[in-house]
Amino acid sequence: MTYAIMYESSTPEGRLMVDPSSKLAAVRGRRPKTGGVDVVLALLDGLTAGQEIPADVLDRLTEGGTAAQGAELRRRVGEAHAAVSRWRRRDQQLSALFSSARELAELRSVGPLLDRLVQRAHDLVGSDVMYLSEFDEGTGELRVSSTLGAITDAFRRLRVPPGAGLASEVVQTRAPRWISGYQTAQVRHDPQIDAAVAGEGLVSLLGVPLLAGSEVLGVLFAAYRSDHRFTADEVALLSAFADHAAVVLQTVELLEIAHRSAREAEQASAEAARHAAAVERAAQVHEELTAVVLGGGDAGGIAVTLSRALHRAVVITDRSLTAVAATDASGSPVPLSFRSTTAIAAAVDESSRSGQLVEVPSAEVYGVAAAVAGRSTLGAIIVGPGAEAFGAVDKRTVERAGLILALQTLQQDAVVRAEEQVRGELLADLLDPSRPHDARLRERARARHVDLQAARMPIAVWVRDDDRSAAVRALQDRAVALLAGERGSLVAVLSADESGERAGAAVARRVRAATGREALVVVGRPGALNDLAHRWSQAADCVRLLDRLGVASGVTSVDAYAPYLALFGDSAVDVKAFTRELIGPVLTWDSERHTDLLETLAVYLDQQGSPARTARALGVHVNTVLQRLERLDELLGADWRTPERRFRLAIAVRLHRLATT
């Protein structure tokens, strides 16, 4: 505690009294006795309080001494006062320094720590600008990361290249560096740094390193916009603060690393747990899918199992990407409203080549896995989007499900092929004229649930060789045919429909849907079972006749070509060769001269050889018809109007018209 000195005016001696409530020793009233102890105490209290010593106190102490002694006393008292003031200021700075260190030690994040560090350093030093540059040991670059007092964005975003500026000298020397008059200082200048410093108007700078052992974390700067001479106390104070800050900063960085490592370890543990759960779920799904196949289940069972395990909608398609089963995310069956897109078809092709699930850039579909056996794509599994992440194990689960689907499809195909073979053999026996329709044949038909009494109408279908199997499978549907199977190069169909036109159209639609191409469908005559083989033979002959005419698609009936079948049905005569032989010169004439002489010939034959009726039918003058008939005489010969030649020409013209319509 410091005390002030005052005179007690009521005492004759004027002795000194101590006033504990005052901070300044003031001597008032009468002068104390020479060499009084109270005067010395007043002097000491004044020095301790850091206050100026009153002149009369000094005068009283020097009474009786020489002038030199008085001057020496005053000089020493002044030195003592300055030292005490310096010690008091240093004590205050150290108190502030330790208070700042404690405050910084409470922070646990690097970003806020840097800002608080710069703020507390500014409070200690009081410079115009205080900023911190972080050091990147890998690149040697310093980046201004926190500022206080800066006014330009260019300075706040400043990056100092390796070796440039005062900051690089601090990093290299690992010691404080300071300059006054930056623009003319002996440092390695850089245009970008000089422009940023000039924009802030900085003149004097002091930089101290933030050291953690031998590692430089950064540089702390105090800067002034006027000429400032840095004292040793300022350098020491900022250096001490930087040392404290470096320790705290490194500790916080280590804590962040530890926390980050802990979070990563926790995430890794959670990921491992999720992976283990996914593996266990995948194993369970694999068992369930295997049970579906072994239990004779269909694609719907696979879809339900997958969607329940993955919590996603699932669609399963056949070879043509037509949906055969669909479920929602809960595993409940939904209507087959799926429509394939170009992106899905491309993903199926890619998955067929890679054997992996292929993601699809679509909001409705997450990915596609093809069901492949050898080089054949037997179908596809299409997985919808979901809220949960789709991991590697989930992808492999879908890919394994694709293999299960391929196995199931092969199994079903084997059953279908066996059934097709049995039904095909039954059909072959029914269409074989040498096989009697005995009780054994009827028993085989009943085993296949075929009502032979309903087998009224044979239908012959021509498709390309590579489409024949698909056409047979498509026609196995009882809604279309009682029996269907391959018969030589044709597909034979037995229909129960009493309408030949309706039955033929249904067969054509089903084949087109299965193969993507039009077929040639010839509907035979309805009748009893005992002449089924003959009626089938007529339909097959009609297909072969149309083939020789060049007709490759469409739906027709045997009755439409009965006259021609009577002429060509049982022979191997080339119909095209027949027409070329009879009317070839006329066809050549029309082709070379772009005329229609064949039309005149056809109308003339239809009008029973009357030029007048032919002219009226063609809408030309009769003389024009006569001129054309003369040209036909030249091309076909003079005897072409005889009855026998006219008959053959009429057939040739009609066959040509059939082939070109």
From TrEMBL:
Matching SMART domains: GAF (SM00065)
The GAF domain, residue ranges: 109-259
Q: Which Pfam families match?
A: GAF_2 (PF13185), HTH_30 (PF13556)
Superkingdom of this entry's organism?
Answer: Bacteria
Question: Which PANTHER family does the record associate with it?
Answer: CARBOHYDRATE DIACID REGULATOR (PTHR33744), DNA-BINDING TRANSCRIPTIONAL ACTIVATOR ADER (PTHR33744:SF1)
Protein's UniProt name = Helix-turn-helix domain-containing protein
Q: Which organism is it from?
A: Phytohabitans maris
